[in-house]
Design brief:
Elements (H helix, E strand, L loop, with lengths): L1 E3 L8 H15 L6 H12 L2 H23 L4 H4 L6 H19 L12 E4 L6 E4 L5 E4 L4 E6 L4 E7 L1 E5 L8 E5 L2 E5 L3 E7 L2 E8 L2 E5 L6 E6 L3 E6 L2 E6 L2 H6 L7 E8 H9 L5 E4 L2 H4 L2 E7 L3 H12 L2 E4 L3 E5 L1
Parallel strand pairs: 6-8, 17-20
Antiparallel strand pairs: 1-13, 2-5, 3-4, 4-7, 5-6, 7-10, 8-9, 9-12, 10-11, 11-14, 12-13, 14-15, 16-18, 19-20
Length: about 325
């Protein structure tokens, strides 16, 4: 995480790709320091174009490196002196520039309406397939808008929670906006959840760039790796790590289940209330602090209340619009 200045004005794509190649080469040298990493983070945060160029050059290097590995060594190749990482990175950057020039003359046909909105009701669940092969899975009480054009791929999480499985397209990064925050990706899998004053991003695969878009203020940003969970509030950004398997458990709502791991009854009740019109209320603070572990259906309140009766001996009163748990 690093504080950065407002994004720099757009510059020539060829220059940005060349700079990305230089950064990639520097990062592979011995002696790469924490200060060097901070400088790279600042450069990446200045513009989504920097992040895109860096990933494209890195991907081109990986592909070229694989080709080198699989080539059969021969007498002539063994004596060839010029196959250094620096040479290949520069070649990859040049090749990507040529591909970018050629791509501008091609047409991308889309069947996804521009600016279309998708929504779920309380307890609802919906899977949206976009024209590029990406998938967006909406959780309960969620609204997402999508804008797919020949030049960009964008979505906005208006409210709620969604899981994004984004198809890789190095020529068009996918951007997800939520309030004044922005997530930029090339192809990856991640979950985004919005709440009043807070945004949570959990990354399962790939890499994403998270930054704010507040005008006139210093912004904050982070380059996320798989297994990281980012929470952004008005006070700043906090990034923690967790096993990817644990993050996958948090997606159990995709199959209509909720996973609790030493979760307090207060938190479990709040989670159930996201999916059901009848609400769970906990009568006293001591009951609220009790913890549970298990997997339960998101819309089956009886399963939850039966467990609290069985394990904690709680009383459950049904008042029509709510269930009240007490000793």
């Amino acid at each position: 995480m690093s504080d950065i200045a407002p994004p720099a004005p757009p510059r020539c794509a060829a220059i940005i790709k060349q700079e990305a190649g230089v950064w990639l080469e520097r990062r592979d040298r011995p002696g790469w320091s924490a200060e060097d990493q901070r400088d790279l983070d600042v450069w990446l945060a200045q513009s989504p174009a920097h992040l895109l160029a860096y990933h494209r050059v890195a991907e081109a290097w990986k592909q070229t490196e694989r080709l080198v590995v699989f080539r059969r060594p021969g007498p002539e190749r063994a004596q060839s002196p010029g196959l250094t990482r620096s040479t290949i990175v520069k070649f990859a950057a040049a090749a990507l520039f040529l591909i970018g020039v050629l791509a501008t003359g091609s047409l991308y046909y889309l069947n996804q309406p521009t600016g279309r909105s998708f929504a779920t009701a309380l307890g609802g669940h919906k899977i949206v397939t976009l024209s590029d092969g990406s998938h967006i899975e909406l959780n309960t009480d969620t609204v997402v808008t999508v804008d797919m054009t020949a030049g960009r791929r964008m979505a906005a999480l208006v409210k709620g929670e969604a899981y994004f499985d984004i198809a890789h397209d190095a020529s068009r990064p996918f951007t997800v906006k939520i309030a004044n925050r922005r997530i930029t990706v090339l192809g990856t899998k991640f979950r985004v959840r919005g709440a009043p004053g807070k945004v949570e991003v959990a990354l399962l695969d790939g890499r994403v760039w998270f930054d704010t878009e507040t005008k006139g203020k210093r912004t904050q940003s982070a380059l996320m790796s798989p297994g990281q969970v980012l929470v952004a509030t008005a006070d700043g950004i906090k990034v923690t790590s967790a096993p990817v398997a644990s993050l996958e458990n948090d997606l159990s709502w995709r199959s209509g289940m909720l996973v609790f791991r030493r979760t307090t009854l207060a938190d479990a009740a709040r989670e159930y209330n996201r999916y059901n019109t009848k609400k769970i209320t906990i009568a006293d603070s001591d009951v609220a602090k009790l913890t549970i572990s298990g997997i339960l259906p998101a819309k089956d309140l009886n399963a939850f209340t039966h467990m609290t009766k069985t394990f904690f001996g709680l009383h459950v009163q049904d008042h029509g619009a709510e269930l009240v748990l007490s000793r």
